């Protein structure tokens, strides 16, 4: 397996005329989706096209039966967030699904090595493309071996940390799950170790990856930020009758925690002056609590035209106080509106270059309330 010079990352990007982006998501969902991973891949497409590359997108489900099995597993263990109750709703998957995931990944890795359809797909990729960008660590090494092309893994999150968190949420931390977690982690970093380059999204994720693969030259941080004109500052809202504060969130544990913080925050601000809009599926999990919800908090759920709703907001908020890995993709949506964002340090992870320009840091509910209140004083 050919290993490319690690310090030539930009040279390889420069020389690559034809680039293939692979992801474990259906193509239609990537192009039309609003979830974090889908939006990040959309940004990759925009970036490569902006530097005049011929870039194509394909789903990993289309190139191997093994990945089709992974898709079936994902669909079978997905929880309907509108119907889910108790702790299961926090991760949109069941404890059973979390427990089985390492077994499924082991099967995928082994089956890829004997799957004739996958070999044919890799042979076609080898003939057609100069560079492969894979948005999933599992299966990346065998893909590189069979195509013999420079390979970039985009590590949206450190995957084993996500699984570890699910085990913690479901109260499944025991000797068996510890062994499963080590296997899962070992496969993830095996694939990362043999990638030519790894693009991650934050300094903390980069540090974790470097510690586990004992390499640093090929681990880069890539966050597609496009800076615009100076955003409206908080003080420019003094004359507004009511200030709308927006938050986007799917039904995950971190977003549930964030909404609970927003409910707490809303009580510290005058309801006649500030209104919070909770956008996304996380709102469905609070439907039963609507009679106890402060009057200045509105749960909008899914919206047909997200950009139109976001334009009506004056400020955005990201009260993320716990997180094992990754960055907040919702920040891309916030940034596109060119409006102020109030975020915790964790929520702004990966966006350090624009802190103080469009992002204001507040690491407590009290500090967030103070900054928001200052907009009318």
TrEMBL record:
<feature type="transmembrane region" description="Helical">
    <location>
        <begin position="96"/>
        <end position="114"/>
    </location>
</feature>
<keyword id="KW-0472">Membrane</keyword>
<keyword id="KW-0808">Transferase</keyword>
<keyword id="KW-1133">Transmembrane helix</keyword>
<protein>
    <recommendedName>
        <fullName>Glycosyltransferase subfamily 4-like N-terminal domain-containing protein</fullName>
    </recommendedName>
</protein>
<keyword id="KW-0812">Transmembrane</keyword>
<dbReference type="GO" id="GO:0016757">
    <property type="term" value="F:glycosyltransferase activity"/>
</dbReference>
<dbReference type="Pfam" id="PF13692">
    <property type="entry name" value="Glyco_trans_1_4"/>
</dbReference>
